[in-house]
Design a protein that fits this description.
Largest sheet: 2 strands, antiparallel
Strand content: 15-25%
Number of strands: 6
Helix content: 25-40%
Strand order of the largest sheet: 1-2
Organism: Companilactobacillus nantensis DSM 16982
Protein name: Replication terminator protein
Number of helices: 3
Radius of gyration: 35 Å
């Protein structure tokens, strides 16, 4: 038998009109995307498995070949955060916000816009202006009510 002549002519890149190669290429694409995903562990191994299943007929002169390609990818890495939880004493509603500054009650500078933010990510300027408006509203409502101090009249 000559070494030049190949008895088994079953090239993976050519069988099923190139469908096996296409399946393999699709799984390589998935593996590459997974490797480039910053939310996965770079050091985890990825794997591609090609499974060829051979089912011969009763005469053993013909074989149906099924091809399956699958990849094993690195899972997404976990992430965590801290949530501040409390109850609004005026309304009774529960309030929850993500802690952005890493320390409850501490302000921080937001790197995206360079502004000072509260521990839950609200602009300090906006919070202070809301508080000022609320104080002014209280003062104005006290003036409108003409509150009489009865203790002053006793003297």
């Amino acid at each position: 038998m000559s070494k030049d002549k190949q008895l088994i002519n079953f090239n993976l890149s050519e069988i099923a009109e190139g469908a096996v190669q296409a399946k393999f290429a699709k799984e390589v694409q998935r593996v590459c995307e997974n490797i480039l995903d910053l939310n996965t562990d770079a050091s985890k191994k990825r794997k591609i498995t090609l499974t060829l299943t051979y089912v011969p007929n009763d005469q053993r002169n013909s074989v149906d070949v099924g091809v399956e390609a699958k990849s094993t990818l690195a899972p997404q890495v976990g992430t965590s955060t801290t949530m501040l939880l409390g109850r609004d004493m005026n309304t009774g509603f529960i309030a929850a916000n993500e802690l952005k500054s890493n320390v409850p009650g501490q302000t921080y500078i937001d790197v995206d816009d360079g502004k000072a933010k509260t521990d839950i990510g609200e602009s300090v300027d906006e919070v202070e202006s809301k508080e000022k408006v609320a104080e002014e509203n209280i003062e104005n409502s006290d003036k409108k009510q003409n509150i009489i101090d009865l203790q002053k009249n006793k003297a």
